Q: What sequence folds into this?
């Protein structure tokens, strides 16, 4: 039972958001909001195509703002188009506890990636309203601009500028394939706000998200207590041999770039398998030239994505892989270019925030397990400036970035209940983060 | 020395085309004609871009016809745009001995592929004129339409219709990527002739060509006596796994289509290596989907090109490869689609024509070796209706279908001298082929 005693906000009972029969957030309302939002950019195959800063993104932002205003929030928009809906606390001089995610999607995205974190935050505000419950600190719900990076590279640009990872001019000047910039599009759709980006204290940040992987489903767990995010190293590899006619060129004379690159794909997989259970190693892009049926490939370009939660292990993986690819190139008389193009260090989330999630899941009686996020999220950048944690819920078959992305209303409600409890706990703590800006 | 005794044409001496100091054709004139032709569509990187039935192809055809008319030939153009330049013999009721090749090129083609066979034929006619030598049979020099297949698929369509492999309507209706047909382009450039395609007897057909492979160069031989052409089987393979996010998806859960396809590329190479020295096995086209840096590839499509001069061996190679790919797919929990899309049976060239080439090379004192053509040529289709042989000369580093394609004037002259001797031998034989139509 939630206590409505506004005079003792620090003493919220452990069962906040639930009674003996389960979570007390309104799961049906949460689901309905998700489905309503998913109509904006809905695809024939049941997904959503709502690229950042398109007219559809504007419609979704408008809908979000309407709902928040109806819920009594005040709206602030910053110059990066990040939106903040604020619910007052008992002491509005204290930094708010924030939640949020994004409402842009992949071109063939699903209904839950990002949208879930935002609608769960909305449900938190609505249920607190329903119960007339006021937290000590204000609560804020954020929508971050261009998380997906599908239209404008890089991904997570809105939260990145907010956290000081990129400067504002850089963020606004990112252009899509047609040369249109984020700044231009923000103006066009009416979301170029006036608030200075990042000058906004955050006592704690929580992000609820579908897992986008199969671990919770396989382990039959409802809540993933996200301990951190894997570090990522991205490489670009070019393998050069000798293009030649497939008919007249004897097998032993060939310098077939594809044969070498194929062995390298196997080596990348082996690099991932060598550091289980956490390592990931993926070749995601792969193209060959001249790509003609009867010509021995002369050049292959491919990407490597290596992930691990431990920086030292990730570095060892990279070094071992570089050596192995070099060996394969030499063995096949090929030239090799192996170039690191990006490194995102691993993130460890804030112990107190993670503990708040853990307590909530336990107190609410949900099955849970620790998990490391394999994907980047806005929470990664937020963790640089505020105590941060994430809550994962299972998604069907682990599939995301896909129109068939799916999650159960029960799991989504459970994650929302955990978010509510964790946020209320932190929002009632008079002592905020040491990391607080 | 060539005998000018037109009353005994059957008695041409073995040294025709050469004396003790080497070939007697005019190597400098041959080279000059090749370089002159290569100006039409010349690229900055020293190659030629002269796609079939473009304005550049018309210019090259015009130049060819001018030269042939200057050499006293009569020109016939058939409805497929194939051009025949005829030099009269002593008995014009006898079927002619024909040579020829093509003057269309790959988009980034070289100066010799095709052009050499045509210019060598022109030099044969010119040298016979210079010496006032008249063969018993007429000699014809053919230019075949759209050999390369770069603009209009399939390749070798002009010689294919001539040999009855395709019917005329099919040939004329082949369209390029923009939907323009061969028939339309032939009319536009003025090469839609009136002659019925294929109603033209051929006593023997010889085609001189650069090897397009490294064998002669590696063996330091000047002349390749082409015994036949490898059979070719083309396959299209689709490998389907499960696309998923590269971060959250643990290695053991993955159904990575690229990992499976990479193992299949290795299997294709192994299939080629298992039947040396003649087998060839190549993956030439390879594409993956969705081809995104942080997404595990869900689908890979690739092509397989298998070649061998023995039909039974080629069939065994195909069957073994199909079984091996199937095993790999099962092992990686992937779906496999393995589809044969084309089969060109191996060709054995005519024993008498090959012997004529062999004698000529030997009598002229050129180093030579037997060779199997790994590539298709117009001669493959001609061999279906006439006794046929080919003469190969080395090309630099075995490179062809490339702007850097190169060959030495000496080797090109040697091949031309062999062509002259072989053609004169067959053109003076009163008894023509049993295959003669």
A:
């Amino acid at each position: 039972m939630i206590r409505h005693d506004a005079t003792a906000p620090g003493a919220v009972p452990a069962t906040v958001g639930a009674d003996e029969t389960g979570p007390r957030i309104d799961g049906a309302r949460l689901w309905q909001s998700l489905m309503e939002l998913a109509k904006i950019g809905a695809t024939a195959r049941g997904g959503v195509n709502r690229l950042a800063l398109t007219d559809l993104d504007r419609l979704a932002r408008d809908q979000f703002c309407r709902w928040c205003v109806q819920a009594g929030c005040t709206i602030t928009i910053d110059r990066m188009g990040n939106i903040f809906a604020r619910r007052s606390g008992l002491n509005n001089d204290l930094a708010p506890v924030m939640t949020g995610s994004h409402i842009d999607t992949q071109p063939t995205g699903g209904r839950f990636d990002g949208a879930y974190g935002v609608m769960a935050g909305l449900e938190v505000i609505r249920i607190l309203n329903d119960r007339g419950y006021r937290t000590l600190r204000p609560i804020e719900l954020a929508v971050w601009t261009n998380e997906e990076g599908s239209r404008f590279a890089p991904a997570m640009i809105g939260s990145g500028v907010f956290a000081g990872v990129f400067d504002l001019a850089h963020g606004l000047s990112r252009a899509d394939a047609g040369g249109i910039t984020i700044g231009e599009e923000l103006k066009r759709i009416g979301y170029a706000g006036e608030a200075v980006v990042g000058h906004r204290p955050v006592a704690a940040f929580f992000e609820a998200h579908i897992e986008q992987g199969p671990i919770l489903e396989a382990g039959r767990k409802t809540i993933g207590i996200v301990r951190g995010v894997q570090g990522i190293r991205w490489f670009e590899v070019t393998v050069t041999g000798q293009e030649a006619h497939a008919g007249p060129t004897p097998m032993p004379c060939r310098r077939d770039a594809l044969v070498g690159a194929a062995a390298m794909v196997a080596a990348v997989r082996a690099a991932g398998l060598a550091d289980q259970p956490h390592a990931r190693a993926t070749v995601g892009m792969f193209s060959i030239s001249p790509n003609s049926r009867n010509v021995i490939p002369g050049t292959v370009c491919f990407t490597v994505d290596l992930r691990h939660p431990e920086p030292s292990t990730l570095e060892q993986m990279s070094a071992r892989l570089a050596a192995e690819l070099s060996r394969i190139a030499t063995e096949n008389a090929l030239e090799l270019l192996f170039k690191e193009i990006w490194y995102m260090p691993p993130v460890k989330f804030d112990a107190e925030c993670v503990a708040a999630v853990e307590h909530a899941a336990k107190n609410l009686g949900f099955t849970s397990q620790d998990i490391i996020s394999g994907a980047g999220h806005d929470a990664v950048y937020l963790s640089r400036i505020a105590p941060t944690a994430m809550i994962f819920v299972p998604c069907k078959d682990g599939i995301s970035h896909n129109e068939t992305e799916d999650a159960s209303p029960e799991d989504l409600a459970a994650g929302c209940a955990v978010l509510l409890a964790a946020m209320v706990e932190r929002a009632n703590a008079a002592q905020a983060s040491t990391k607080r800006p």
Observations:
- The mean pLDDT of chain B is 92.
- Residues 403 and 414 of chain B are 23 Å apart (CA to CA).
